[in-house]
Structure formats: C-alpha cells, structure tokens
C-alpha cells in the first residue's frame, strides 16, 4: 500500500509540473479555467491508467478488488494530490524561472 501511495504522489507531482509547463509555456497564461481543468483531468486519467497497469494485486489492500474501476479512483486521487503540488511546489519555481528567461 505504501508503494502504491508513493506512485500516486510521484505521478501527482509530475502532473503538476506538466500543468505548469502547459499553462506558462504552451498556452502563455491565456488558457481559461475550463481548459486548464480539462487538461488536468486528462493527464490524471492518463496516469490513472498507467498506475492501474503497473501495480500488482499484491500492492492493494485486501479490501479492494482489482478491477478497472480502480482507474477512476487513481485518477481522482492523482487530481486531488496534484492541486497542492502545483500550487506549493511548481508555480513559484516556474514563475521565478520564467522571469529569468527572456521572451517567455
């Protein structure tokens, strides 16, 4: 269970980084809230599928039965963990980094 939680947190931090890059460098801070939310959910579902595919049944608690519905659970958890990772970790780093680079 601990390894599964670490995988979910690692994917959440990575999704947070992807979202900040998307907002700052691909969309240049011109994306609206609906677009950002949709892209964040798409990344969360993608990494939820990856989590489902790479985890074995032994990583799950005995109460959970391995089924494709776990993709939904993993996606929601990644999205919930991604929000604080984005706000607390990546946003200040990329904000300072983008100030140092001209034409960004």
Short structural description:
The chain is mostly helical. It has 3 helices and no strands. The chain has one domain.
Evaluate the radius of gyration: 16 Å
Proportion of beta-strand residues: under 5%
Helix and strand composition category:
mainly alpha
Counted beta strands: 0
Q: How helix-rich are the residues, as a percent range?
A: over 70%
Tally of distinct domains: 1
Q: What's the story with the biggest beta sheet?
A: none
Please, what is the average pLDDT? 84
Shape: elongated
Tally of separate helices? 3
Termini separation comes to 41 Å
**Helix and strand succession?**
HHH
Descriptive account of the structure:
The chain has three helices and no strands. The protein has 104 residues and is mainly α. The protein has one domain. The protein is elongated. The N and C termini lie far apart (41 Å). The model has no long low-confidence stretch (mean pLDDT 84).
Defining key terms:
single chain, 104 residues, mainly alpha, 3 helices
Topology (SSEs and partners):
Blueprint: H1 2-26, H2 33-54, H3 70-100
């Amino acid at each position: 269970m601990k390894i599964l939680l670490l995988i979910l947190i690692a994917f959440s931090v990575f999704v947070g980084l992807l979202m900040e890059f998307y907002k700052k460098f691909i969309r240049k801070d011109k994306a609206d809230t609906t677009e950002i939310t949709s892209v964040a959910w798409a990344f969360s579902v993608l990494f939820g599928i990856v989590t489902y595919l790479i985890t074995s049944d032994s990583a799950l608690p005995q109460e959970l039965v391995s089924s494709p519905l776990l993709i939904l659970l993993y996606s929601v958890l990644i999205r919930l963990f991604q929000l604080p990772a984005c706000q607390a970790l990546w946003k200040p780093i990329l904000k300072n980094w983008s100030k140092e680079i001209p034409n960004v």
